[in-house]
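Standup notes
- DV: blocked on the single-chain target, sequence here:
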Amino acid sequence: MANSILIGYTVFVAINLLASTTTMQATQTTEKGCLERKQNPKYSRCPSRMHIEYEYSSSGIWLYPSDNMQSITALLSDCFGQIVTEQSLSPEIGYYLEINLEPGEYTITCTTDGGAVYEGGFTIE
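- DV (later): unblocked, structure below
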């Protein structure tokens, strides 16, 4: 009888601990966006269909360049214009910026190996 009470109490405590740890975990949201190509004054002002999609969260940023873009240089700056990180990315090393971001406004500028510049911004709350 004492063993069954002890087993029942142990199961009760284990279930409560599991429930409390799962509810205390912070939910990490992932947001998506698109970097638009900056216009080159030498060429027509028609909007480009080329863009770079991205997903971001508080732990990093995934970039999804189109197939014809091989290597890109990604520059991340904050709302004060301070560079947070600048990295060269390629298919071999991946298109991921591993960085913990604090709440605030950020701008991503990507330059392709062909010289095209893509830019966009996002806010982490």
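- Follow-up: The beta strands are 31-37, 51-57, 60-64, 72-78, 83-89, 96-98, 104-112, 117-124.
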